[in-house]
């Protein structure tokens, strides 16, 4: 720890840097999905796990910071409804295609990523603004109140919505992939040049 800095100050900025990198990575994934990206089951599962973990972690932190545990009820309801709606309606937004070399690409559902990113950024900004360095010092938890508490609750609901939408989208993408692999659904073939034009 640097001389003259309060306890947890260095760790605070280190964790903020990690979150900034996470935001950049999520933004990059959003752009990649807009342009089209190679399908990978492992990558799909890993990213879904990361997104869900971040959402759950921030929601759990909110309860520690003063949000009533009763908020878990609407959060779970929003999560389930968003996942179902996304699974049902994202099908028409997702497109698959194959390259001449046989690689399977897909894209679509960018709005879902943007909703998740908005919720994540809003939730992070609230903790940075109202809690500060002690947001990662669990020995001295700050209890939110007033506008900070209501802002935290609203951002948690937005983040929960984003998590649910991503879960439904990823389930739909995975199902479409399996249908293509079994030959039940066909993916059009496109040359690399035409892929760049999509």
Explain what this protein looks like in three dimensions.
The protein is mainly α. The chain has one domain (9-196). Helix content is 66%, strand content 5%. It contains 6 helices and 3 strands. Strands 1-3-2 form a 3-stranded antiparallel beta sheet. Helix 4 (110-130) runs antiparallel to helix 5 (146-181). The chain is elongated, with a radius of gyration of 20 Å. The termini are far apart. Mean pLDDT is 80; it is low at 1-8 and 192-198.
Q: Which residues sit in consecutive blocks of at least 5 with pLDDT less than 50? A: 1-8, 192-198
Q: Give the helices and strands as they follow along the chain.
A: HEHHEEHHH
Number of domains: 1
DSSP strand (E) fraction?
A: 5-15%
- The largest sheet has its strands arranged as 1-3-2
Tell me the number of helical segments per DSSP (H or I, 4 or more residues long): 6
Structural class: mainly alpha
What is the rounded Rg?
20 Å
Q: Describe the global form.
A: elongated
**What's the helical proportion of residues?**
55-70%
**Quaternary state, please?**
single chain
Largest sheet entry? 3 strands, antiparallel
Terminal Cα separation, in Å? 50 Å
Mean pLDDT: 80
User: Could you give the count of β-strands?
Assistant: 3
């Amino acid at each position: 720890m640097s001389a003259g800095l309060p306890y947890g100050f260095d760790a605070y900025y280190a964790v903020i840097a990690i979150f900034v990198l996470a935001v950049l990575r999520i933004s990059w994934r959003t752009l990649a999905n807009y342009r089209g990206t190679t399908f990978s089951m492992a990558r799909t599962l890993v990213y879904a796990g990361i997104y869900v973990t971040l959402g759950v972690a921030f929601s759990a932190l909110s309860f520690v910071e003063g949000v009533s545990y009763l908020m878990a009820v609407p959060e779970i309801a929003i999560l389930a409804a968003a996942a179902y709606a996304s699974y049902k309606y994202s099908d028409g937004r997702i497109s698959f295609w194959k390259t001449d070399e046989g690689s399977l690409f897909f894209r679509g559902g960018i709005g879902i990523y943007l909703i998740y990113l908005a919720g994540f950024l809003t939730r992070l900004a609230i903790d940075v603004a109202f809690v500060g360095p002690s947001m990662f010092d669990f020995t001295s938890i700050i209890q939110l109140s007033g506008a900070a508490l209501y802002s935290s609750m609203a951002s948690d609901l937005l983040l929960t919505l984003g998590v649910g939408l991503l879960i439904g989208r990823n389930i739909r993408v995975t199902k479409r992939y399996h249908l293509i692999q079994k030959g039940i659904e066909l993916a059009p073939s496109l040359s690399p040049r035409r892929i760049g034009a999509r």
